[in-house]
Design brief:
single chain; 333 residues; alpha/beta; Quinone Oxidoreductase, Chain A, domain 1; Rossmann fold; 2 domains; seven-stranded mixed sheet; six-stranded parallel sheet; 11 helices; globular; NADP-dependent oxidoreductase; ADH_Zn_CS
């Protein structure tokens, strides 16, 4: 079958369209005919080699962390879906490969596609949706009346997280450019900080949660807007010791993560807030709950651009600009 292959790690390395063996589903696997694949900064970072120490991938490999498509075969122990079902998923680490005509996904990692979305729209959801869910619901346990700052509100995670935070009853602030202010307000943002002309750390205070997806400087400034007992959760690093333990990394790598995150953890403790790193995980049950919210009209996808599959390197290049509003998707059909 056809797939885009990463032959070696490298900054902005081009993927090669070539042939790879057909995937064979195991007892817990679902074989999916991919109709659309979402693209994410995570794909770029894996391609660039940024996660070599902590993710078990060795080139040549097929990237792609989210997809939508049709079930064409199931393993003997699969009970949640059947052949012919339209599904979407974020495959678990170690089983990625959505930039291909077909992929095997664990039964536990996928959900039925929202009935009111196209395949391209559905493919834009799993990674960012699960990331936002795991930050806001699973870890921060946001309650009505709490205040949440979501950085980069016009990005993939931001556009989803704003909508979810509003659904949970939070007051939502976000950072965005002036040109994207109307868009993020339409998604539910109560306060929009123009990062080019305003300093969010001087405009905001008393927040319960900051969701950071930006650089180290933004991460540190975010401490200033949190109230004592607040949470600073970063999806862009630095990874903390808890992440190293959860990933089962060896002692040397765990020590490296402890040292990398020591500065921000120390400053967070001094400020009386909690810092943690989140690397989202696949979860079909959570994705099913997200499906319900989408079908009820609570959350809608925000798709910046849809590329044909053969232009996947161009799609990655668009991701690399950092200017996508919402998500970028490649379609195979």
């Amino acid at each position: 079958m056809k797939a885009f292959i990463l032959d070696r790690y490298g900054k902005k390395q081009q993927l090669r369209l070539g042939d790879v063996p057909e995937p064979v589903p195991g007892p817990e696997d679902v074989l999916v005919e991919v109709e659309a694949a979402g693209l994410n900064p995570l794909d770029s970072k894996v391609r660039d080699g940024a996660f070599k120490p902590i993710l078990p991938y060795k080139p040549p490999l097929v990237l792609g962390h989210e997809l939508a498509g049709m079930v064409v075969a199931i393993g003997a122990n699969v009970r949640r879906v059947k052949i012919g079902d339209a599904v979407y998923a974020r495959p678990r680490d170690g089983q990625i490969g959505a930039f291909a005509e077909r992929i095997t996904v664990k039964d536990a990692d996928l959900a039925l596609k929202p009935a009111n979305l196209t395949m391209a729209e559905a493919a834009s959801i799993p990674l960012v949706g699960l990331t936002a869910w795991q930050v806001l619901v699973e870890r921060a346990q946001i309650k009505p009346g709490q205040k949440v700052l979501i950085h980069a509100g016009s990005g993939g995670v931001g556009t989803f997280a704003i909508q979810l935070a509003k659904h949970l009853g939070a007051t939502v602030a976000t950072t965005a450019s002036a040109t994207n202010t109307a868009m993020v307000k339409a998604l539910g943002a109560d306060v929009v900080i123009d990062y080019r002309s305003q300093k969010f750390e001087e405009e905001l205070s008393g927040y319960d949660l900051v969701l950071n997806s930006l650089d180290a400087a933004t991460l540190e400034k975010s401490l200033k807007v949190l109230k004592p007992g607040g949470k600073l959760i970063s999806i862009s690093g630095p990874p903390d010791p808890a992440f190293g333990q959860a990933q089962g990394l060896n002692a040397a790598l765990r020590l490296m993560l402890r040292l990398l995150s020591a500065g921000i953890r120390r400053k967070a403790k001094r400020a009386g807030v909690n810092y943690s790193f989140l690397f989202m995980h696949a979860d079909g049950e959570q994705l099913s709950r997200i499906t319900k919210l989408i079908e009820e009209g609570v959350i809608r996808p925000v798709v910046d651009h849809v590329f044909p599959f053969e232009k996947l390197n161009d799609a990655l290049g668009h991701i690399d600009t950092g200017r996508a509003k919402g998500k970028v998707v490649a379609t195979l059909k």
